[in-house]
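Sorry, explain these tokens?

___
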Amino acid sequence: MSGPDPEALRAEALRWLSRVEDDLEMVAAGVERGRLRPAAFHVQQAAEKLLKALLVLAGAAVPKTHDLDRLIRLAGADSALPASAADQLAALTSWVTIGRYPEPEEDIAPTAEEIAEALGLPRRREDLVRARLTGG
């Protein structure tokens, strides 16, 4: 009995990466327009979809969850995430609600600087996923 088809896994991972690019474009547009809550939401979404692409490449099931810590744990050693990067990514889980739900406090949105710093996390993970797709 053989495992999952590597080409099918690669194609599915590429579909996830396409969605990552969509989210990263939305981050840039949100920051440019001063819409920081939606921009923060899309940073979290980009990180989530990258982790799901890693799960796909590992042949693992992809759960419907926004919990980045859970996704990191599921990816395990296959994620090749240093502990510090995993902790930083997991902290973005709370950003999933920032752009979606009104909150009583108006100052909960990350700053443009925090968004720019956080944006580096999915960008670096995207490089890792692309390297795996090309066998690097």
In short: The mean pLDDT is 86.
